Structure prediction request, 796 residues.
Amino acid sequence: MAAVTQPDVPQFGLEQLVASLSGHAIYRLEPDGRVAGWNPGAERLLGYVAAEIEGQPFGRFFTVEERRAGAPERLMAEAAEAGKADTSGWRVRKDGSRFWSEGALHAIRGEDGRLVGFAKIARDATRQRAVQQQAMESERRFRLLVESVTDYAICMLDVNGAVTHWNPGAERIKGYGAEEIVGQHFSRFYTPEDRKAGLPARALETARREGRFEAEGWRVRKDGARFWALVVIDPIIDDDGALIGFAKITRDISQRKAAEDALAESERQFRLLVAGVVDYALYMLDPNGIVSSWNSGAQHIKGYQADEIVGQHFSRFYTEADRAAGVPARALQTAAEQGRYEAEGWRMRKDGTLFWASVVIDAIRDETGRLIGFAKITRDVTEKRAAQIELQRAHDQLAQAQKMEALGKLTGGVAHDFNNLLMVVSGQAQLLRRRLAEDPQALRALDAIETSARRGEDLTRHLLSFSRRQRLQPVAVGLSDRAPDLKALIAASLPPGVQLVVDLPPAAWPVKVDQSELELALLNLAVNARDAMPSGGVLAITAENARLTPETAEGLKGDFVAITVSDTGQGIPPDILPRIFDPFFTTKEVSKGTGLGLSQVYGFAQQSGGRVTVKSELGRGTSFTLFLPRSTTAPKASPEEPAEHPAPSARVLLVEDNPEVADVAAGMLVQLGHTVRVVNGAAAALDMLHASALHETETPDLVFSDIVMAGEMDGLGLARRVREESPALPVLLATGYSQAAEQLGDEFPILRKPYTMSELGRAIGALLAPRGDGDGKLVNLQSARRAREARRDPQG
Prediction:
C-alpha cells in the first residue's frame, strides 16, 4: 500500500539527504578479509587509526549478531563471485557505538584474473535511512528498505511521535492500513502497561538525546494480539541541526523470542537435571583440566563438595600409578584430538578408597571451533564389573565342565573296549605261562607281554578316573596317620636332589576318599613336580582345613581339607595351563609321560566330591591343591586281608558276547579246575538255565557274566533275573567299564577287567566257600547242589 503524506508535514528532498552525509570510508582488504589500507574517511567514520586496524579482520566492524550469522564471509564470497556486493547494516565503531552503514564491496583482480583483494566503500547512512529518496546516493538504502518490506515495519514519526509515513511491512506486521494510522501517535502500538509507564516518550527522548533508541518488548497489533518486537528509532536532523522527526523500524521477532525462551527453559531444566543426577558424576573441565562445575552425583560418587574441588585439577581422582604414567594428560589429549575419550579404570574417592569407573570425556568447542573445555561423565561400575567377572568365571567353569564331560564320555567308552583287549592279551599270556613253564625264553616274552598289559591296565584306570567312571571305595582316611606311608611311597620316586617335605598335621580333618586313588593322585602330582625340577628343589605336601562357600573360587560348599602339592620348579606357561588336565596332553617326551597323570588327579577329585586347582608362575614353581570332602566318621584301622577260600570244582556258566574274551575266561576257569559252559548272551543263559531245570540236568553252581553285552538284557539284568528265579545260585560279574556298574554298590561282586587267574580264583572261592566262612552272602556249594536235587526229586 502506498504511503500517505500529511500536507502539514515537512518533506525531505534528495539534496537534504546528500547534505546529511558525513563522508565515505574507503579501505582495502586482503583476500582473507584483513584490512590492508585505511583512508582518513574510514578513520573518521570508524574511529580507528591505520596502525590500529591494518591486519585486523574487517568483520570486527559488524555487530555480534551478523558475525554469528557469517555476514562478513558471505559478503566476500558474493563479491568474489559477482565482482561486487552491496552492503548495508549496523556497524560498530571503535568506541562501541553503532551506525548504519551503506556501501559496496568490490573484488580486485590482477591481470591474470586472480583475486588479490577487495575495495570497501562505506558511508554513515544512519540519519538518511529513514528518509525515502530515489536519488542515486540513497539507492542501496532504498533497495534495503524495499527488500525489507515484508519483514520490517518502517515508519516515519514527526517530532511529537505522530506517524507520517507507513510502509507495507508495517501494515503486514501491525495490521493497520496507512490511511488508518498516519496522523496517529505511535504509542498506540505499546501495551497499556508500557504506555502507563511512559515508555513511548522515553524512547523518543533517548533517540533525541543519544542519536538512537533500540529495545525489545511487547507490542500490540490492530486486533489486540501481542507480538515481541525489536524496535529501532533514529532521529532525523535537518541541515541546520534541528530535529525534524524520527525513523522507526520494527521487526516481529516473536518466533526468535519463543526459541530463546525455549532454549533458556531447556537450559534451566538441563541444569536442574544435571544437578539432580546422583548416579553419574557430571562436571566441566577447562582446557587445562581444571574442574569448573560439580554436580550432586559427583559429590555422591567421589566424596568432594563443590567448594572443595572446583578449581582443582581432575587428575587428583586418578591413582598415583596412573598419574605417574600420564593417563590424565593422555585422556584430555585424546578427547581434544578425536572429540571423545572413553575408558574404564580405577579411580580414587576423597577418603582414599578405590572404585572402578566408566569415564567419558567430550571436547567442547565454540562456534569457531576453538576448544573451550571438556564435559566429563563418570559412573561407578564397581558392582557391574564384579558381576561381569563372576559371570565370565561361571562361563569358563561351565565350558571347562562341558569339555571334561565330553572327554569323560569318550574315554569311558574307549576304556571298555580297551580292557577287553587287555583281557585277551593278559589272559592268554597267563594260560601260556603254565604250558611253557620249561621254556625260559618264552617265559621272558610272557613277562614282557604281562608287563605291557599291566601298563595298559594303568592307562585305562587313569582314563576311567578322569572320566569319573572309576569304581571307588570311599572310606574315612586320616591324613596324619597315612603320612609315613605316603612319604615312603613318594620318596621312592624322587631323585636325591629333590627335598621332600610332608606336613599333614593331626589337626587336619579325616577325608572321605578311595585311599588307593588318593595315593595314586598324590604320586602323580609328585612325579610331575619331580620332572619340573631337573636340577633339584623342594617338593612340599601340606594339608589344612577349609570351610568353603559357593562364592569361593572353588565353587564348593561345606567342610573340606585342602591338600597342596607344591614345587619350586620351572612353572607352567599361561597358554598351557588351561589344558593340563586334558587326557593325553603332555609337554614331556614320548618316553617320559602318557599325559594321563593329571587327568587321574582331576577325575579323582571330581568323583570324590571335591575339586583340584592349580597356581603357577614361570620360574617360581607350581602348586596343586586338592579340596577333598571332610569325613563325618572317624578313620578305622586297616582291615585284615580276607582269608582265601580254595574253590572246589564247580560247574560254571560263562556268559560273554566277545568270543576272544570268552576263550580266555573259559581257559582260566578250566585251569582252575572248573567245568565250563559258554553262552554268548543273557537270553541264551536264561534259556540254558530254564532247560536245565526242566530236564533235570545238571545246573551250574555259579554264573560268571560280563556286564556290557548286546541285546535287550545286559549282565546286570541277567544277575537280577537269576537272583529272582534261583536265589541260591551265586552270580559273579565282570566289566571293563559299565556306567550301570557305578550304581551297583554291593549288590553283586564284580571283577574288573583285565583280571588275573588268581583274582578270578579268589572271587569264585569266596562265592562258593562254605557258609559261615564268608560274610553271610556266600553259599555252601554241596548244600546248594543237594537242595537243587531235592527240588527235582521230592521223594529222594
Remarks:
- Residues 382-435 form the longest helix (54 residues).
- The chain has 26 helices and 26 strands.
- Residues 403 and 435 are 48 Å apart (CA to CA).
- The longest strand covers residues 98-109.
